Each structure stands twice: as C-alpha cells, then as structure tokens.
Amino acid sequence: MIAPSILSADFARLGEEIEVVSGTGDARADWVHVDVMDGHFVPNLTIGLPVVESLSRVSRVPLDCHLMIDDPDRWAPDYAERGAYNVTVHAEAAHDPVMLAKNLRAAGAQAGLSVKPGTSLEDHLEVLKHYDTLLVMSVEPGFGGQSFIPEVLDKVRLARRLVDTGHLRLLVEIDGGINDDTIEQAAEAGVDCFVAGSAVYGAEDPGVAIERLRRRVNRCGAHP
Ligand code: DX5
Ligand code: ZN
C-alpha cells in the first residue's frame, strides 16, 4: 500500500491535491496520510479536526490520520468520529493506549500506534495486541523532506516476525524519508504500507510517482 502524505501538498488546494492521487490502477493511492501536529508534541503546527472533517467528505481514498499531538486520549476519538479511516496516535504521548484503541474502534476507525525512531518496540508489544496498525517513524516526527533512518528497520523486522507467527495482527506502516532510493529496503524488512510525502507531491506527476514506488516494492518481491 502507498499512502501519500499531504504534508508536502499545497495547503491552499488540499481537496484537489487528494484528487490528484485518487486516479486509477497503480497510480491510485491506497490511503491518504494526513499529518496532524499540535506545536507541542512536535515543534510544528499543521491542521486539525475541521480540516480533516472537510477532507473526509470529499476524499475518495480512505484517510490515514497521524496525530502528532499531546493527550491523544482526549482528542483522537474525535478524528475517528469525523470520518478518518485509520487514526494513529503516538506511544510516547498516549496515557492509556489500550483504552484509547478501544475508543478509536468504538468510534468507527482502525486504531494505529506510532513509535518515534528512538522508541523501542519491546515496551509496547502487549499494547500492540489491541491495535490494527503500527506506524514506525523513520525520521523524527515534525517535518517532511528529512533523510530516512535505516536503523528503524530492526523494528519493522521484529513486527513482521510477530505478525507472520500470529503473535500480532496488524499492518506495518513506515513514515519518513521514503522515496525511490529507500523504499526497497523498507519493503524487504516487511513493511505493508509506505507513507511518502515529498517523493509523491514533490514529483512532477504524483500519480506516476506512486506507480514508480509501487513497482519498486513489487520488484523486490518482498512480503506481499
Ligand atoms: C513527518 C510526517 C511524515 C512526512 C513524511 O513528521 O509524519 O508523514 O509527511 O514526509 P517525507 O515523505 O517527505 O519524509
Ligand atoms: Zn506522518
């Protein structure tokens, strides 16, 4: 799966920018990744609930909301209620992640848990049993266009192994620095869903960029 991040899109034309990646065949995004930042959990401020609600009404592709915010226990279920398909919260910010996953699902969304590059997965394995997606950050959250941190692939390999052996049931997603040069190593490590911001929206034709990323994943013949 490919999930273009609209963090690198033109914020004055977000509806059209989503439409650009909602084409057909291999050029169609599987999810559209929406980065919500609160200026506290990360040193950047982007968009919030009203914008997500408006985008969920016009988007033909499911919205994947990545909440880089403090106190997600309080705010995240609202995103599920307003139409997000998958709502990801940060393990470093959640107070009661098991209850939060239950609340997200009760509000109609899939529940995602994200870990920053320096956060170990081992501490969160029990909690992950309650989640539908694991978002492994491959850059420090906050900004698009940063360089991929290959060391996080150990976490992807661990998660992949636990899923393949039936200990976890979730989708493994990676976010940060994914482009034509890095996507194959992530695919080989066992990623299911690739977030790409600048590699898609910085390209002349975002649809062609999605096709190209998809081709690289398929070519390395890694996990389906
Ligand atoms: C970073 C965001 C990412 C970002 C990725 O904090 O979570 O989703 O948009 O951008 P690229 O693909 O340019 O690294
Ligand atoms: Zn993100």
TrEMBL record:
<keyword id="KW-0479">Metal-binding</keyword>
<keyword id="KW-0413">Isomerase</keyword>
<feature type="binding site">
    <location>
        <begin position="197"/>
        <end position="198"/>
    </location>
    <ligand>
        <name>substrate</name>
    </ligand>
</feature>
<keyword id="KW-0119">Carbohydrate metabolism</keyword>
<feature type="binding site">
    <location>
        <begin position="142"/>
        <end position="145"/>
    </location>
    <ligand>
        <name>substrate</name>
    </ligand>
</feature>
<comment type="similarity">
    <text>Belongs to the ribulose-phosphate 3-epimerase family.</text>
</comment>
<dbReference type="GO" id="GO:0004750">
    <property type="term" value="F:D-ribulose-phosphate 3-epimerase activity"/>
</dbReference>
<keyword id="KW-0464">Manganese</keyword>
<dbReference type="InterPro" id="IPR013785">
    <property type="entry name" value="Aldolase_TIM"/>
</dbReference>
<protein>
    <recommendedName>
        <fullName>Ribulose-phosphate 3-epimerase</fullName>
        <ecNumber>5.1.3.1</ecNumber>
    </recommendedName>
</protein>
<feature type="active site" description="Proton acceptor">
    <location>
        <position position="35"/>
    </location>
</feature>
<feature type="binding site">
    <location>
        <position position="177"/>
    </location>
    <ligand>
        <name>substrate</name>
    </ligand>
</feature>
<feature type="binding site">
    <location>
        <position position="5"/>
    </location>
    <ligand>
        <name>substrate</name>
    </ligand>
</feature>
<feature type="binding site">
    <location>
        <position position="35"/>
    </location>
    <ligand>
        <name>a divalent metal cation</name>
    </ligand>
</feature>
<dbReference type="GO" id="GO:0006098">
    <property type="term" value="P:pentose-phosphate shunt"/>
</dbReference>
<comment type="function">
    <text>Catalyzes the reversible epimerization of D-ribulose 5-phosphate to D-xylulose 5-phosphate.</text>
</comment>
<keyword id="KW-0170">Cobalt</keyword>
<keyword id="KW-0862">Zinc</keyword>
<comment type="pathway">
    <text>Carbohydrate degradation.</text>
</comment>
<dbReference type="InterPro" id="IPR000056">
    <property type="entry name" value="Ribul_P_3_epim-like"/>
</dbReference>
<dbReference type="InterPro" id="IPR011060">
    <property type="entry name" value="RibuloseP-bd_barrel"/>
</dbReference>
<dbReference type="InterPro" id="IPR026019">
    <property type="entry name" value="Ribul_P_3_epim"/>
</dbReference>
<feature type="active site" description="Proton donor">
    <location>
        <position position="175"/>
    </location>
</feature>
<feature type="binding site">
    <location>
        <position position="66"/>
    </location>
    <ligand>
        <name>substrate</name>
    </ligand>
</feature>
<dbReference type="GO" id="GO:0046872">
    <property type="term" value="F:metal ion binding"/>
</dbReference>
<dbReference type="GO" id="GO:0019323">
    <property type="term" value="P:pentose catabolic process"/>
</dbReference>
<feature type="binding site">
    <location>
        <position position="175"/>
    </location>
    <ligand>
        <name>a divalent metal cation</name>
    </ligand>
</feature>
<dbReference type="Pfam" id="PF00834">
    <property type="entry name" value="Ribul_P_3_epim"/>
</dbReference>
<feature type="binding site">
    <location>
        <begin position="175"/>
        <end position="177"/>
    </location>
    <ligand>
        <name>substrate</name>
    </ligand>
</feature>
<feature type="binding site">
    <location>
        <position position="66"/>
    </location>
    <ligand>
        <name>a divalent metal cation</name>
    </ligand>
</feature>
<feature type="binding site">
    <location>
        <position position="33"/>
    </location>
    <ligand>
        <name>a divalent metal cation</name>
    </ligand>
</feature>
<dbReference type="GO" id="GO:0005737">
    <property type="term" value="C:cytoplasm"/>
</dbReference>
